[in-house]
Every structure is written in structure tokens, then in C-alpha cells.
Amino acid sequence: MLLVLLGAFIGSFGGVFLKSGAGQVREGLVYMFISRDPPFFNWRLATGVAFFLLSSYFFVLGIRPPGELSVLYPMVSLGYIFTLLWSRIFFKEPLTRVKFFGLFLIVVGVVFVGLGSK
Amino acid sequence: MSNAAITDAAQIPEKPARRQPVGLVFCCTILGAAAQILMKTGANHLAQPGLLSMATNLPLMGGYCLYGLSTLLLVLALKDGELSLLYPVIALTYVWVTVLSFLIFHDGINAWKLAGIVLIVSGVTVLGKGGRR
Questions:
Q1: What tens digit of pLDDT does each residue of B22-71 get?
Q2: Cross-strand partners of A41
Q3: Is B64 part of the contact surface with chain A (CB cutoff 8 Å)?
Q4: Which of A16, A27, B67, B127 fits A102 for a cystine, CB–CB 3.0-4.6 Å?
């Protein structure tokens, strides 16, 4: 369970790095990892992808027997809440009532799907 | 339930500036769900775990490719969209996976899952409409 929590935490940072790297992406998918400005290699994007891979590795470790899939889902939805925090802290995105309400519905929904997967 | 979300995505041309990122993430969740189904199919056919048997497993590799593609779409969406708005929309993947595994693998569906699907779809609809402002 701690492994899954760690995975969700790392995954939420993956989103942060993807977002910060996305601003550097040029038109045309071939140039995905080649950024506009020096040092030209889009290391933020690469870090984001690496974080996502790492988080899925922790998920797989965490749900190996005797771990349960139903534990995975609530932890994943915790990741969404972390991401809301990071968006506020790192990108100064406004936190609106609509975002809280939408996120609340999604988090409860993901937990429910988890409960149904027991 | 999913009908509401589909019409949502179909209205993208009306408000390109605001709607496009949410529409992109919407496509990204469909690709992500297809990837998971392919991986599950591949894992079912996997005789023994090993690098070679995994690399020659067509559904498994197809799943990884689709995952890569969905990440590309996510990056494009994040270019113009807010992270706090788009990241929770990824939860739609669970909706597709639950429905698809019911249809393909005949995994059981129950009241919890159904309620969860309804809640996730409503949450995404709220975020999609709120993002338009």
C-alpha cells in the first residue's frame, strides 16, 4: 500500500514535469524532446516520462499478491489531489469551485470503481 | 452515460481555444484504455515472463506503443491547458477499461463500479464545462 502511495506521489510529479516541458515543445511531433531554447534537449519532458514509468513500476510492485487492486484506485485518486496542489504551487493555476467539485466527483468515482473491483 | 461525454467532445470546433485540450485528453484516455486491454491480452498469452518473450508479444508491444501515443497527446494538451483541469480527466480511462473488460473479458460489473462510472463521467463533464468559462 505504501508502494502504491509512493507511485501515486511520483506520478503526480510526472504530470508537473510534463506540463513544464510542454511549453518548450515545438510544432511537429518529431521534435518532441528537442526544445526551442538551450540546452535543446527537453529534459523536463524526459523527466516527466521517466516519473510516469517509475510510478507504474511501483503500482505493479504494490498490487502483486497479497496486494489488492481495490487498494490501487483510492491511492491513484490521491494522486489527482496532489496534482491540484502542485498546479497551484508551481504554475499558479487558479483553484476554482468548479475544479474542486469536478475533482471531488472523480475521486469518489475512482474509489467506488476500486470497491467494485474487490 | 458515456454518450454525454461523447457529445461533449464532438462540440470541440465551437470553442477551439478552450475545448481542444479537454478533447485531446479525452482521446488520450481512449488510447490509454485500449493500451491496457492490449497489455492484458498480451499478458494472458505470455507463457513465461522474460525480455525476449515480452518483446515478441505483439499485443503487449502494441499496448506500449498506444501508451506512448497517449502520452504524446497529453503533452500536446498540456501545452495549452491547465494541469489542474486536465489531469483528473485521465480518470476517464477507468470508465473505458471497466466497460471494455466487461465486454471483452466478461469481468463482472456491479453497483459499485456502475456508480463509480457515473460519478467519474459527471466529474469530467463538470471540469469540461468549467474549463470553457
A1: 888 999 999 999 998 888 888 777 777 677 777 788 888 898 899 888 98
A2: A34
A3: no
A4: B127
* Host domain of residue A84: 2-116
The C-alpha cell at B31 is 488510447
Chosen from A32, A107, A112 to mutate, greatest number of chain B CBs within 10 A: A112
Q: Residue B26 in contact with residue B92, Cβ under 8 Å? A: yes
Q: Tell me the pTM.
A: 0.80
A86 touches chain B (CB under 8 A): yes
Q: Report yes or no for ipTM above 0.85.
A: no
Residue ranges with strand state E in chain B: none
Cell of A32: 518532441
Residue B16 pLDDT > 70: no
Query: Touching check for B49 and chain A: CB below 8 Å?
Result: no
